[in-house]
Amino acid sequence: MTAELQFDVAHLLAGSLVLVSFMLLYQARMYALLNLFALHAVVLSLSVAWQAYIQGAPHLYVTALIALGFKGVLIPVSLHRIVQQLHIHRAIEAVVGVGPTMLIGMGLVALSIGVVIPVTVETDSLAREDLAFALAVILLGLLMMVSRHNAVSQVIGFMSLENGLVLAATGAKGMPLVIEISVAFSVLIAFIVIGIFLFRIRERFDTVDLRALDDFRGERRLFRMGEGLDTVELPAVDDSRGERG
Amino acid sequence: MAVISSVVQGVQVLLVVVLAPLLIGYVRKVRARLLRHRGPSLLQPYRDLVRLIHKDAVVAETASWLFRVAPYLVFSAIWVAAAVVPSFAADLPFSRSADLIVIVALLGTARFFLALAGLDVGTSFGGIGSSREVMIAALAEPAMLMVVFTVSLLAGSTQLSSVVAYMSGPDVGVRISLALSLFGLMMVGIAESGRIPVDNPATHLELTMVHEAMVLEYSGRHLAMIELAGSLKLLVYLSLIAAIFAPWGMAVAGQGIGSYLVGGGVYVAKLAVGGFALAVFEASVAKMRVFRVPQFLAMALMLGLLGTLLLFVSRTL
Question: Alpha helix locations (H) across chain A?
């Protein structure tokens, strides 16, 4: 098999992952969103398996299986059940419209390509391309988290972000299996915690729309009463934190 | 040599006009069969054209010369585009004189004159139709251009014959950008030729019609020209998709008469497959609201843009 074909297939799979991230971004229906997330994980596991094959690294197959089992089957199925129990299988809306979100997403993809490609001149092309797409998937996951009000879609944004991390990790050669397994389990635990939170939020506010939390903290009400920006108390910014980091 | 290719070019120019109504009839027939209707005959579009040509053209009192000229301008612009797109043979004389960007511009010119003609008479329907058509075009054209850029970047040329040669060669490989461009181009084609999720060619319901509203004032031979131009436009998009993404079986200059015949047969088969797919798609989706059309086309634009971006990654490495 030629190196070119190897690269092309890796490119195809990683590019499909970015594409599915975009589909997650605009999908407004709950069940379709969950199915798309499962597709995201399946594409990720295919991509990881292909990396395992061309790098000759058998432990990456385990990573692929973990991705397929946990994120392709377990988490979507349990999210399906949560959504059913919470009775929230209705449409969800984004903060800004679909068009602007897509444009911002495009900008993020261009940004991640523009950032990663120049700084990784030393490494081989496979890792560079994987890193660029992984950064794009991570940024798109973050965008999904900030553009959605619904707690469940924010969870999906978080999980798709984690998929991007796995893609980045497999692109770099020599990632130990221990780290991958621990990341997978920490994601699972995060999922359990988030699931419990979902039910708590629902119990308390009768909705999983996170704007209710903002209202509860009194952050939005001031705007709504028209008191102007200057009366809003913003939390004090800790400047020293940035310097230490 | 030059004589043969000129003759073949002439055959193509005539063939596209002859085939275009048949394609429309075929799509209607398949769609009707899928809906368990019997459907009109395959030749019905030809009969409609003949009937329209024999009728008198009724022109509104307020119409200017533009109204009378526009159908011929629209038809000729689209006809030129159809003559340039390689159908059953690549490397024809016309194909060298115009590239993909010219084809986009020709289709844009046709749309411009049709929109002007819709506004010309001053009825409210024409105005609605023109404004909607321009709204669709404003998004469809950039999406189409992004697809064109992706394909041209890959093939290293905007000439369709070179693109065809590259796509049927061994250098293509597995590329996600091509898949994205294919879907983008299909969405643009559906929007531009006024097929179902965007516009319904079979209805005169005022809330939803786009193209039909624009040409509502036309009758007789003018309407025949516009109908023929519309069917030709669908053929152009199908040929374009076939030429870029399925260039197999196309005859190349320097081969014998036999290869042209084979190319013609393959071309008709490709059109049949494309028309069938279009009919199945049309039968399985519902017409969307006019205000959702921008979202649909934004998706096509996004696909084209993403294709270009992903291509950029694999190119710079």
Answer: 3-26, 30-55, 59-66, 75-86, 98-119, 125-147, 151-171, 177-205, 211-217, 221-224, 239-244
From the centroid of its chain, how far is CA B108?
11
In this complex, do A12 and B176 lie within 8 Å of one another by their Cβ atoms? Answer: yes
pLDDT digits (tens, 9 = 90+) for A116-147: 888 877 777 788 888 889 999 999 999 998 88
Please report the pLDDT score of residue B185 as a whole number. Answer: 95
Is A225 part of any domain?
Answer: yes
How confident is the model over A213-232, as a mean pLDDT?
A: 55
Residues of B in contact with A19 (CB under 8 A): 176, 180, 306
Please say whether the beta carbons of A125 and A68 come within 8 A: no
Considering only the beta carbons, identify the residue of B174, B302, B306 that sits closest to A9. B174
CB proximity A6 to B under 8 Å: no
A130 interfacial to chain B (CB closer than 8 Å): no
Residue B142 sits at the chain A interface (C-beta within 8 Å):
no
Nearest-by-Cβ selection for B173 from A5, A105, A132: A5
B138/A contact by beta carbon, under 8 A: no
| Interface contact A19-B316, CB threshold 8 A | no
pLDDT confidence of residue A169 = 84
Range of the domain at A87: 3-230
Contact B317 A106 (CB under 8 A): no
Indicate the number of domains in chain A: 1
Residue A245: inside a domain: no
Mean pLDDT over residues B109-136, rounded?
A: 92
Q: What is the pTM of this model?
A: 0.84
- Is A114 inside any structural domain? yes
* Closest chain A CA to residue B307: A15
Dihedrals φ, ψ of A29, to 5°? -100, 140
Residue closest to B70 by CA, chosen among B127, B126, B113: B113
Nearest to B242 by CA among B205, B267, B279: B267
Determine contact: B269 vs chain A, CB below 8 A.
Answer: no
Using pLDDT thresholds of 50, 70 and 90, give the confidence band for residue A148.
Answer: confident
Q: Using CA coordinates, name the residue in chain A closest to B292.
A: A98
pLDDT tens-digit series, residues A7-51: 888 888 988 999 999 989 888 788 888 999 999 999 999 999 998
